[in-house]
Write a structure and sequence with these properties.
Elements (H helix, E strand, L loop, with lengths): L1 E2 L1 H6 L1 H11 L8 E2 L14 E3 L9 E9 L1 E5 H7 L13 E4 L5 E6 L4 E5 L2 E5 L2 H9 L4 E4 L1 H10 L2 E3 L4 E3 L6 E8 L7 H14 L2
Parallel strand pairs: 1-2, 6-9, 6-10
Antiparallel strand pairs: 3-13, 4-13, 5-10, 5-11, 7-8, 7-12
């Protein structure tokens, strides 16, 4: 199966362990890459993807919703101040995570909208790297409580603009999908892995 590296590092290990424990005679090969893998051409059974499907011939099953917001380290906020409105973000150093690069859309509880133009200091395609740069005080960045919960709980990370939600066209959440080639009957190994993953993430 294939997944982006950050998903492979942060979400998959306990699921894979649970699956192998439940099905000890099975084996799993993980391809962790940000490249969109050709599932049929490369003989891959299952993918986890965050983006909407471009290939409508594939089957997609909802896996997990992740809240997405802007975060900064407490040290960075102490040094650079706490933004109160999205218009103040242009004055901040931004750690950009593709595809959220230089423009972010916000909407508040009153339905007011604002498009913020940012100046990325660093742009990366790995959400773990964004977290590391945030922790080092290099700037603000997009992340999720699923990824940085320990830092949020300890007070090391501060959620910015709590009265504004990022407008990502699909709401303030990033949705992960299981994607697999169409077939008359879903292979038992695919169905079993999906069931283990869904059960594991509900715990």
């Amino acid at each position: 199966m294939t997944a982006p590296p950050d998903i492979g590092h942060l979400i998959l290990p306990p699921i894979v362990r649970e699956y192998l424990k439940s099905y000890p005679k099975t084996q799993i090969e993980l391809i962790l890459t940000n490249r969109i893998v050709d599932l049929v051409g490369e003989g891959v059974d299952l993918a986890i993807r965050a983006a909407a499907l471009k290939d409508s011939t594939m089957v997609a099953k909802k896996f997990l919703d992740l809240e997405i917001a802007l975060y900064a380290s407490a040290a960075y906020v102490k040094k650079n101040g706490l933004p109160r409105h999205p218009k103040e973000l242009s004055e901040q150093s931004f750690i950009a995570f593709q595809p959220f690069t230089d423009t972010l859309k916000f909407v508040n509880q009153k339905g007011e909208r604002f498009k913020a133009s940012l100046k990325p200091r660093i742009t990366v395609d790995d959400i773990e790297a964004v977290k590391l740069f945030i922790a080092s005080g290099d700037g603000i960045g997009v992340s999720s409580p699923f990824i940085c919960e320990p830092e949020i709980v300890s007070g090391k990370f501060i959620k910015l603009l709590p009265n504004w939600n990022l407008d990502l066209n699909f709401g303030p959440k990033s949705r992960l999908w299981f994607v697999y080639p169409p077939q008359k009957y879903v292979a038992p190994k695919i169905q079993a892995f999906i069931e283990v993953a869904m059960r594991s993430c509900r715990k």
